[in-house]
Structures are given as structure tokens and as C-alpha cells.
């Protein structure tokens, strides 16, 4: 077991060499950390860590082998993520020997989407298998939240079926207030109330997911594809998935195969949100039963005024417009707040959501 002193020695690197002697395994961990983080000039300038002489001789394959042998899974994923995203070590996702060793995780999926244009057919086949495994994990994790929200929508009428998930808290309190015992400060429940769940899908709804495929939105692109796959086939809901940069690509035909869909995405390039919003508006059949979700950082390269006009027009015709600066499990956005404020002023709901929260929003609307 690594002692606290050894942990600090590993964190601070070679400048803290006098803090604690490292055993063979801790020394190997130190070499692996130095190989990666020793290339950061900012750390070296502050004297926090410098690369060891022997560590630089490691190949990426050797380093990955050491990392998988020496660290727990969550640390492996963080190291691989930093290798690709902080230090641009593209061999992690473009070299077949390296790619066959990496742990499938969302960070590497983002890296594959950014670098797949560099891959030869052999590497691309390996990358596709990695994409498939990560997508399988994401679908398994997200489908529960997405489907739970859409299992059935609440109706206001009472029900005789006593199910805990349909317990009407407010109705029960109101109906039993006369049984309140002031001395014991307790409300005696004579009769609990429940609401019914129904699927009133005689009039179908539309959900148009409009996804910015600029490089900074990789995480949202992935989760939009997985969310669309989870929502596909929900009774009474017709889902569209559209990706855009300066061009607009309708990916709805591939929604049931998110792996194929993601392999077609081309991250990077400019951004014309206004053009994409016009395309989405053209897809809407029944304005008052439609939701248009624009997933973007809202750094518009097109006509901002045209975008605001299109969003205002959608809102005025009764369409629910979501402007989501992030759609992923963290829902931590980085976006143009000025343009987002103008879109909010035009009547759009502006913010960030997890896929489960988006499903809940959809369920709330179609249940009315």
C-alpha cells in the first residue's frame, strides 16, 4: 500500500525527491507520471515536476502497459484522457498497437471523433469497436433515466390503483387537512390519493435535436446521438437528429445505429446556427406539439439576427424551443452568454441539461 508520503512524492514529482524513498512499484508509477506530465512546460517552470531521464525512453505502448499494470481503472481513464486531450498524444487513438490496449471510455470516444480522419482502415476498424463499446455503456447508463421519464405521463384525474410512484402528495394533504392533530402535530391520513398514468398519444409530438458539431461540442454530440437512440420508438414521439457546422446534415436515418451515426460526424469547422435553425423550423409539422432543442455553444459564425428571428418565430407559433449550451452527463456549459441572453429574450428556454433532464422535459410536455 502506498503511504501518504509516497503519494505526495508522486504528486510533486522529482523536485520532492528527498521527501520519501520510493519502492519499486511507486518508482514505476513515478516514471509513468513523469512520462506524461513531465512534458508540461508550465509545471517545470514552477518546479513541481520535471521529466525523469529514463521515462522519456518509454514508447506510448510501453507507457500504456505500465499504466494498466500500476494504476486503478479510474486513474487509468484520467491518464489516458490527459494524454489525448492535454498533450495531443494521438498515438493513443491512431496507432493500432496502442488502440488495442486502451480502456474504452467517453474521453477516448471524443478523441476518436476528433482524429478519425487521420486513421487508416485497420485503425478505423479498431476505433469503431472502441466506439461501439463506449456507446453500449452510455446507452445502458442513459436509457434508464430516459425511459423512466417516458414510461407514462401523469394525468390529473384520480386513480384507484395504489402505486407508490403515482402517490398524489398535494392531493392527499388537501383531502386530509381536517384530520390534523394539533397536540401531536401530525396529519392523520384517512385516505391516500393517487393519480393515473396514461399514454395519450393520439396526437404525436416531434422532437428535433439540432446539434452543433464544432470541436468543443464533442461531448454533447455523443450524448445527443445516444439520447436520440434511446428516445427512438417511444410511442407518440417522432425524433429527428440534425448535425450542423456551416452545413446541415440530417442524421435521422441513422438514429437507431448511434455507432454508425457518430462515425459519420465531422467535428470542427465553422458554425452557422441560423441556417440550422431554419432547417429545423422546416421540419415542424404541428407547431404546438413540437420541441426544437438547439445544442450549441452559441458562438455564431452566421447571422445572429436571423437566428433570433427564427427562434422568436418558432416560439410565437407555439413551439417549445430549448437552447442548450450542453447536453451531457455533467451539463457544465461554456457558451456565448450575450447571444444566449438574446435567445432567452426571444422566448427560448436557455440552459444546460443532462439527457435524463431533457427526457423529463419532453415527458412533461407530451403529458399535458
TrEMBL record:
Pfam families for this protein: VWA_CoxE
VWFA domain sequence ranges: 204-363
Sections of the chain in a coiled coil: none
Source species, domain of life: Bacteria
PANTHER family assigned: OUTER MEMBRANE LOLAB LIPOPROTEIN INSERTION APPARATUS, OUTER-MEMBRANE LIPOPROTEIN LOLB
Stated name of the protein: VWA domain-containing protein
Amino acid at each position: 500500500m502506498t503511504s501518504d508520503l509516497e503519494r505526495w512524492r508522486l504528486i510533486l514529482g522529482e523536485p520532492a525527491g528527498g521527501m520519501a524513498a520510493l519502492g519499486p512499484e511507486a518508482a514505476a508509477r513515478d516514471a509513468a507520471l513523469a512520462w506524461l506530465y513531465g512534458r508540461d512546460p508550465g509545471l517545470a517552470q514552477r518546479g513541481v515536476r520535471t521529466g525523469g531521464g529514463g521515462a522519456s525512453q518509454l514508447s506510448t505502448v510501453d507507457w500504456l502497459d505500465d499504466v494498466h499494470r500500476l494504476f486503478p481503472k479510474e486513474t487509468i481513464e484520467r491518464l489516458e484522457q490527459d494524454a489525448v486531450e492535454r498533450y495531443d498524444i494521438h498515438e493513443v487513438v491512431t496507432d493500432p498497437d496502442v488502440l488495442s490496449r486502451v480502456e474504452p471510455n467517453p474521453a477516448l470516444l471524443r478523441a476518436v471523433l476528433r482524429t478519425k480522419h487521420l486513421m487508416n482502415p485497420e485503425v478505423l476498424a479498431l476505433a469503431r469497436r472502441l466506439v461501439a463499446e463506449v456507446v453500449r455503456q452510455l446507452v445502458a447508463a442513459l436509457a434508464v433515466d430516459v425511459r423512466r421519464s417516458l414510461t407514462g405521463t401523469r394525468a390529473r384525474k384520480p386513480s384507484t390503483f395504489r402505486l407508490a410512484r403515482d402517490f398524489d402528495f398535494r392531493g392527499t394533504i388537501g383531502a386530509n387537512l381536517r384530520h390534523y392533530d394539533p397536540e401531536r402535530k401530525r396529519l392523520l391520513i384517512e385516505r391516500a390519493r393517487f393519480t393515473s398514468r396514461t399514454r395519450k398519444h393520439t396526437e404525436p409530438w416531434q422532437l428535433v435535436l439540432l446539434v452543433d458539431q464544432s470541436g468543443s461540442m464533442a461531448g454533447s454530440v455523443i450524448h445527443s446521438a445516444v439520447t436520440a437512440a434511446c428516445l427512438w420508438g417511444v410511442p407518440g414521439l417522432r425524433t429527428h437528429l440534425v448535425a450542423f457546422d456551416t452545413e446541415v446534415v440530417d442524421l435521422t436515418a441513422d438514429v437507431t445505429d448511434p455507432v454508425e451515426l457518430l462515425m459519420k460526424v465531422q467535428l470542427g469547422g465553422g458554425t452557422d446556427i441560423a441556417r440550422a435553425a431554419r432547417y429545423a423550423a422546416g421540419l415542424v409539422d404541428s407547431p404546438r406539439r413540437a420541441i426544437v432543442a438547439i445544442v450549441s455553444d452559441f458562438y455564431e459564425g452566421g447571422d445572429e439576427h436571423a437566428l433570433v428571428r427564427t427562434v422568436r418565430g418558432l416560439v410565437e407559433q407555439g413551439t417549445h424551443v430549448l437552447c442548450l449550451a450542453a447536453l451531457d452527463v455533467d451539463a457544465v456549459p461554456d457558451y456565448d452568454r450575450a447571444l444566449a441572453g438574446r435567445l432567452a429574450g426571444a422566448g427560448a428556454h436557455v440552459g444546460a441539461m443532462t439527457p435524463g433532464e431533457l427526457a423529463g422535459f419532453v415527458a412533461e410536455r407530451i403529458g399535458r
